[in-house]
């Protein structure tokens, strides 16, 4: 899957996921009545909100969770979608914007660490297809690994896109303030951007590793034993309990 050939275009588009499908990464981690629900998946930004409650009810039923989880799952998903929609309508830059994405995941007994270049300006990119190809190349058989990789990629793309919108807002405010104070903008043309440096070195980018970068961007896969998985699960559970305890303490202190 090749990155876009965006060039140095200064055009913009309305905020969206910088991928072919406008799928939002969703991560839910809830605990109640001694049971925990933890999952990560994607959500179509165009789906009606009524689907959220349907999904929450189906999840609770399929996993045999306490009914109280229904509203918690729905609220968690809704809040993340609302945050995404708060950016909609904002201008997002187009053109080639290359970033290094990193993976550090454990899915069941599989640990994968990797890094690769990704062009945010390529609005036809496909994290799910990239993840499937990576799993094929690494001969990863666990069917849950691919979706987890795709969600991790989308989370980073979302964060970078949101940062670009926030940065654009700050730049517009700064320029207006400088104009109000009569500051000369001509000096800014002398600044060398990261994109310019890449062009000068004839660096072509894509969402896959180039052969000369294999040593630097070589993926690392580790298959854990059942004992190691149990130990990591227990550690994560302790960390989760500690986090919940801190939230309770902080909430109590705020009420005092």
Task: Describe the protein's architecture and organization.
The chain is 45% helix and 20% strand. The protein is built from 6 helices and 7 strands. A hairpin with a 2-residue loop joins strand 5 (98-107) and strand 6 (110-119). Mean pLDDT is 82; it is low at 1-9 and 183-206.
Structural descriptors:
256 residues, disordered N terminus, 7 strands, alpha+beta, two-stranded antiparallel ribbon, 6 helices
Mean model confidence by pLDDT: 82
Q: Could you give a short account of the major beta sheet?
A: 3 strands, antiparallel
What would you call the structural class? alpha+beta
Assess the beta-strand content as a share of residues.
Answer: 15-25%
Could you state the oligomeric state of the chains shown?
Answer: single chain
Distance linking N and C termini: 55 Å
Helix count, DSSP H or I runs of 4 or more residues: 6
Taking pLDDT < 50 over at least 5 consecutive residues as the criterion, the unreliable ranges are: 1-9, 183-206
Order of helices and strands: EEEHHEEEHHHEH
- The percent range for helix content is 40-55%
Q: Report strand order across the widest sheet.
A: 5-6-7
Rg value: 22 Å
- The geometry reads as globular
SS elements, strand count = 7
Would you kindly provide a brief summary of this structure?
The protein has 256 residues and is an alpha+beta fold. It is 45% helix and 20% strand.
Please describe the topology of this protein.
Elements lengths: L11 E3 L8 E10 L2 E10 L5 H14 L5 H17 L5 E3 L4 E10 L2 E10 L7 H12 L6 H36 L13 H7 L19 E4 L2 H30 L1
Antiparallel strand pairs: 1-4, 2-3, 5-6, 6-7
